[in-house]
Amino acid sequence: MNLSPSAAAGGGLPDQPASPEVSEEHKCLNSELWHACAGPLVSLPAVGSRVLYFPQGHSEQVSASTNKEMESQIPNYPNLPAQLICQLHNVTMHADAETDEVYAQMTLQPLSPQELKDPFLPAELGNASKQPTNYFCKTLTASDTSTHGGFSVPRRAAEKVFPPLDFTQQPPAQELMAKDLHGNEWKFRHIFRGQPKRHLLTTGWSIFISAKRLVAGDSVLFIWNDNNQLLLGIRRANRSQTVMPSSVLSSDSMHIGLLAAAAHAASTNSRFTIFYNPKSKPFRVCHTIG
Amino acid sequence: MNLSPSAAAGGGLPDQPASPEVSEEHKCLNSELWHACAGPLVSLPAVGSRVLYFPQGHSEQVSASTNKEMESQIPNYPNLPAQLICQLHNVTMHADAETDEVYAQMTLQPLSPQELKDPFLPAELGNASKQPTNYFCKTLTASDTSTHGGFSVPRRAAEKVFPPLDFTQQPPAQELMAKDLHGNEWKFRHIFRGQPKRHLLTTGWSIFISAKRLVAGDSVLFIWNDNNQLLLGIRRANRSQTVMPSSVLSSDSMHIGLLAAAAHAASTNSRFTIFYNPKSKPFRVCHTIG
DNA sequence: TTGTCTCCCTTTGGGAGACAA
DNA sequence: TTGTCTCCCAAAGGGAGACAA
């Protein structure tokens, strides 16, 4: 049993350096794919804009997503207001190495009272999330994820997003290459066959399904980027939460870390970094006018 | 492809409640299995004893184990000494849900100067880790982990640890049930066959190997507990580190959380919780005499 | 004593059209 | 239009002894 896409039949997984985390920093994750995966309700504030950050809300969200409960008291952070008005210095888009779920890393800097008095013209006011048009998203059926056979491509989706088939061939078929969020390539046979005729992805599909551990109810989405590359993203259905950082940090440290980092930044007006998971409860970075 | 042990051929995986983390708290992980997995160099301090805790060392260790680098400055914790003399209030043994690697959760309380003056008689001084005798540990070979065939049991190990076979049968064989660190049961066919004769685990073995994602170089260990149950633990070979808590906490928060929790506890003499991973660099909870 | 190989046969599962919702 | 089924055949894989380190 070989779950890696580097296996014979599947697409070639490029050799990974020791730390995938580091390598990911170096290449830019496709913004349209990120937004397509995040969904139409998610928008990222623009760099330079002012945002409201709620440390307590964020802490609760992390707590919920890791299924951890507090074991002891949380220290009080008298310097930590319920909400911080911050300037957004940096946003980078990421995808979890295990699950392909998208998240963003943001560098925030709390604004001093003086800076808050400064006039502020928001450069772009709430730039709505630009959902790409040249894409399709399909929720996987039991047949799509079964071991017998491949993926049934909705007709309009195939016609809109996949390169046109050569219908002089019998049957019409081609090889598709698609890059996932980490830049790994996956190879699929795209064929138009059956009675009645329909578009299917066959060879390569089941390797993708098992490598990404997709099940019926999860969604896949295909999209073309500006660089004429086919991209492939995932939206996982909600399911029993994974319990992530066991054996590394106690839940106390996790909570306190988040609050302490914000408190320290607030008292020194220095930058701090948060992870924004668009899939959690409504996150509390909001656009605001200074 | 079904990787769960609840599948037809394998042992029955008991129904899991929504949160495995919580359920694990309720049952007591077998101490001998924990120590066998942790190895002979690891010993846990006794509850009530005094220990030295090095927050900075712990922080660096977590940093190394998660492959995360700091993105911004760490605040200074003026109240946080380089080492804290603490009383150990609680120790619980755990195993990572993903990897089965053992770790311990400890509740520490920094001692006040007054308490430090109190006479202190260590109840048990450095109780050496009690390695069980009725156990064996084998490093898996390429054959043990290949898809063709099962697990070759070293002869003495099988005779010492497995129930004796009925040699009047031809071939002698029995069914073994073994519980892993999470209490899940795995079923194996134990047979004595071949030319020359040897002990083998066949049916059920490959399901275990793929479910636990074991590879050649990893080790398995079998042990009997007081309750007459066969237990099954894992020691993984060192390999490229997993990058654990991505998309949950920034590395900054992780560092700061650990230090801030210790600093807060130190200044208030309140209890705090740490995770002790015996596999990392020598950890810095040391026995000490008050 | 035990790790690897190869052989044999069962099981799994890709890939096709049939058929029905 | 597309989800599921079944059929057919290729590939994967378990379980056995052979053989050698």
TrEMBL record, chains A, B:
PROSITE patterns: B3 (PS50863)
Subcellular location: Nucleus
Name of a matching Pfam family: B3
Gene3D superfamilies in UniProt: DNA-binding pseudobarrel domain
GO cellular component, one term: nucleus
GO molecular function per UniProt: DNA binding
Domain of life assignment: Eukaryota
Chain residue ranges for the region called Disordered: 1-24
Residue ranges annotated for the TF-B3 domain, each copy included: 136-238
InterPro entries: ARF_plant, B3_DNA-bd, DNA-bd_pseudobarrel_sf
UniProt keyword terms in alphabetical order: Auxin signaling pathway, DNA-binding, Nucleus, Transcription, Transcription regulation
GO biological process: auxin-activated signaling pathway; regulation of DNA-templated transcription
Family of this protein: Belongs to the ARF family.
Task of the protein: Auxin response factors (ARFs) are transcriptional factors that bind specifically to the DNA sequence 5'-TGTCTC-3' found in the auxin-responsive promoter elements (AuxREs).
Name of this protein: TF-B3 domain-containing protein
